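Dear colleague,

Thank you for sharing your sequence with our group. We've completed the structure prediction you requested, and as agreed, I am returning the results in plain text so they can be pasted directly into your records. Please verify that the sequence below matches your submission; if there's any discrepancy, let me know and we will rerun it promptly.
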Amino acid sequence: MSRPAASLRPDLARIAGWIADGSRVLDLGCGDGTLLAHLRDAQQARIVGVEISDQHVIECARKGVNVIQQNLEDGLALFEDGRFDTVVLSQTLQAVHNTERILLEMARVGSEGIVSFPNFGHWTHGLSILRGHMPVTGQMPYQWYNTPNIHLCTLKDFEALAAKLGLRILARATFADAHEISWLPGWRSTLAVYRFASPARRGTKAA
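Please find the predicted structure tokens below.
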């Protein structure tokens, strides 16, 4: 099985740990290609990234990462059903306009999906709202009027949506200040990472 890398950000290391060596991996909103470059070099993965930012596309090219410049809102029509073993959407779900569509597209083109997003249920967010202000934190560092985050959710919110869409959750990891935690994650975690199986693989056992 795959091996997490100490050089990766903790949440990316957890994602890498859920991906088997030699897998076909699609990373949506792949940023500068750090995760994909690791998967290619350390885990012999066959990689493709999708990214809209000009600068990030250039950084991917410098790393030798195969990247397609495209807006995720346009869908994944260029990929056929079941092309990938794993489709990753890291810290981008909250900025996508059509959340259900992108999750279903991930399930269509991949056997498994991995998503991560800021946990709006963190206790400091509730405290900020009680004080009359939208929260501004390390995971959500924007003011309410300039934030790209349009669909914030809690852990339970995401799990309910996954169930509605027929996505079976295989594993979950939660983080607070870059440290993985397990106690009271709904209140204490700032970032959640989920691994799920597409409807076609409902018989897969959880990790």
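Summary note from our side: DSSP finds seven helices and eight strands in the chain.

Kind regards,
the structure core
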